[in-house]
Known about the structure:
160 residues, 7 helices, alpha+beta, 56% helix, Arc Repressor Mutant, subunit A, two-stranded antiparallel ribbon
Amino acid sequence: MVSVLTDKVRLVTSIDLGDDPLALDRQVCFALSVASRSVIAIYRPLLEPYGLTHPQYLVLLALWERSPRSVRDLSQTLRSEPATLSPLLKRLEALGYVTRQRNASDERSLAVALTEQGQDLRQEAEKIPYQVVERLGMELSELEALHSALARVLEATKTH
């Protein structure tokens, strides 16, 4: 057990975060934030020829798994708010990759589907994960372990 004295309370816990629990380089949130920005920067030049941003690419990944999908379903899959998706979908529609149509049986529901151009883009996009792995310069086993750890982090944060 570790006893941590703060200004107001003494916290007794089995977690030992070392001498300085607020050291920036020890913060999981900082490492995740910087790693995320850095990895997205690797994607940027790979997506640019297609006129895509990383968030738009994520939408297409979800649609390549299954299309059409409702905005609500896309929102849940991508763990984002529908309002965040709206501008992404508008831009993808302007690029000719998707269409958005009201559901005939439920006017409140908007269906998003890949166009032929969006479907064809998949073949080109299949190169991207290989290029990202190559540019990261990490062993595939390391990336798989990282992905597994991040999946556990995502699962742990679902309840909070």
